[in-house]
Specification:
Elements: E1 12-14, H1 31-53, H2 68-77, E2 83-87, H3 94-103, E3 119-123, H4 128-137, E4 143-149, H5 155-172, E5 180-185, H6 191-197, E6 201-205, H7 218-227, H8 231-245, H9 254-269, E7 273-278, H10 284-298, E8 300-302, E9 305-307, E10 310-313, H11 324-329, E11 334-343, H12 368-385, E12 390-397, H13 400-421, H14 429-441, H15 448-455
Parallel strand pairs: 2-3, 2-4, 4-5, 5-6, 7-10, 7-11, 11-12
Antiparallel strand pairs: 1-12, 8-9
Helix pairs in contact: 1-9, 1-13, 2-7, 3-7, 3-10, 8-13, 9-13, 10-13, 14-15
Bound molecules: 5-phosphoarabinonic acid.
């Protein structure tokens, strides 16, 4: 065990309600199947370690990176900007959004303007309402833009960058370079040469780290340093998670156990919808980040056959009043992973009710944390009694360490998932067709044939249209 960790600071995983014959009843992983998965663990682990040793899967090594340059850059910006605006999409946006929700104070961006505590906005779409809105909400003169694109060519991010460049030149003239920091691949794409030619500060996404595995690279760490998140703790937590998940002992590896049980529930029992269900406002966007991680990594064609789970997100207690009806009584196609937090820190006590509201006296004097925790346990119990397989990840609290560890668990579980499904978890060929069609429709040079092909394709037939 690492020097600084004791067990009470680590995450725990409880799979009791996933195994057949558990409190949820017969629907669950057959222990014999799990035994077979255990026998395959050494080979899957070796395959991942071999790829890592061969220079692939750079995400494993991110906890060990030096972050002095990122820190020095952030220190120099301190007190200069009211807003940090991230331009990025997919893996270049979702992790930062999840970390911001987890590690910045709640409702941080609704606070009054304060140059010592910038707001963070992540612009991960090209909807004109959003893009126009951010230019109005964040004055370019007091904004630092972090352009993040691993490929350095993604149309959504590049179009935002063109807009920001123009706005900056208009607002701050020759000083525009001081308002832009670029995070991109060491070589590929349009961004790197442009940044170098214009003397912009740049940080590199390692070539062997894919977008959705890049949250612990400069992709998430540059905004993190600017926002003052505890990056050492984040990386220490991730290193600890890596150590646990790469355990030779299958039953001691949270990632291997998560991957194997979920794979068996999908492929043997048809429970292919995987719901990540945080009971924590701060962890609410981890579910969105995980959706992309799992969907792009495991949703693949294998020998012409589509495989992979469908990831989904829910939020406790909010979704008890929205999705839990479906979860409890709808199709038996789901598996739930609850995220429970033991210490919410910012405790708020529910006051005793005044005369006339005596029926609410059971709430008076309890904390909101107690209420949220009771709802988490109650929902797990209700779904268990409804025969729905589920498991529980418990975090001691939502801090940088536990979030770093959770990120590593989910990333390594996804990597093990690739081994189990027999797919390459690190490519995304299904995303390319849409990108290429967009280039064609937008008239990018070299994509003329695609333009003709796409424009000639009728996606609408008058007999099926209601106007
Ligand atoms: O996970 C991925 O690889 C993708 O979701 C990318 O992050 C996304 O397409 C954005 O790509 P880029 O960072 O190259 O702009």
């Amino acid at each position: 065990m690492d020097r600084w960790y004791n067990r009470s600071m680590s995450l725990t995983l409880d799979l009791t309600c996933l195994v057949a014959g558990g409190p949820q009843g017969a629907v669950g992983v057959d222990p014999a199947d799990l035994q077979a998965a255990e026998s395959a663990h050494a080979a899957h682990r070796k395959s991942l370690l071999d790829k890592r040793a061969g220079g692939e899967l750079g995400f494993f090594d991110l906890p060990d990176q030096q972050i002095d340059a990122i820190r020095a850059f952030a220190d120099k910006q301190h007190g200069r900007f009211e807003n940090i605006v991230v331009l990025g999409i997919g893996g270049s946006a979702l992790g930062t959004q999840a970390l911001h929700a987890a590690l910045s104070p709640a409702l941080h961006d609704r606070r009054p303007r304060d140059i010592s505590r910038p707001k963070l906005f992540v612009i991960d779409n090209v909807d004109p309402v959003l893009v126009g809105g951010i230019l109005r909400a964040a004055n370019p003169a007091t904004t630092l833009y972090n352009v993040i694109s691993k490929s350095g060519s993604t149309a959504e991010t590049m179009s935002q960058f063109l807009l920001v460049l123009e706005a900056l030149k208009h607002t701050v003239g020759d000083h525009w370079q001081q308002h832009v920091v670029v995070t991109t691949d060491g070589e590929a794409g349009f961004l790197r040469p442009f940044a170098e030619a214009n003397g912009l500060t740049t940080f590199a996404v390692p070539g062997n780290v894919g977008g959705r595995f890049s949250v612990l690279s400069p992709v998430g760490l540059v905004p993190g340093a600017l926002m003052g998140w505890e990056l050492d703790e984040l990386l220490e937590g991730a290193a600890h998670g890596r150590e646990r998940c790469l355990s030779e002992d299958f039953r001691q590896s949270p990632a291997a156990m998560l991957a194997a049980t979920h794979h068996l529930l999908d492929t043997k029992l048809g429970h292919n919808v995987q719901v990540l269900f945080p009971y924590s406002h701060k962890l609410r966007l981890m579910a969105d980040w995980n959706v992309q991680l799992v969907a792009e990594s495991l949703g693949k064609s294998r020998n012409g056959q589509g495989v992979g789970p469908t990831p989904h997100g829910a939020l406790g207690a909010t979704d008890q009043h929205s999705q839990v009806q479906l979860f409890a009584e709808g199709p038996h196609d789901k598996v739930f992973t609850f995220l429970r937090v033991l210490n919410h820190k910012d405790e708020v006590v529910i006051p005793a009710p005044p005369a006339g509201l005596e029926g609410l006296s059971y709430l008076g004097g309890k904390t909101f944390g107690q209420l949220l925790d009771a709802e988490c346990r109650a929902t797990q119990l209700a779904l268990t009694e409804a025969g729905r397989p589920n498991c529980l990840i418990t975090l001691p609290e939502v801090d940088a360490r536990s979030v770093g560890e959770l990120i590593m668990w989910l990333q390594i579980a996804t990597a093990f998932g690739g081994e189990l499904y027999g797919v390459d978890a690190f490519n995304q060929p299904g995303v390319e067709a849409g990108k290429v069609a967009t280039y064609g429709l937008m008239g990018r040079e070299g994509f003329e044939a695609e333009k003709a092909r796409v424009e000639g394709k009728a996606l609408s037939n008058p007999s099926w249209r209601i106007a």
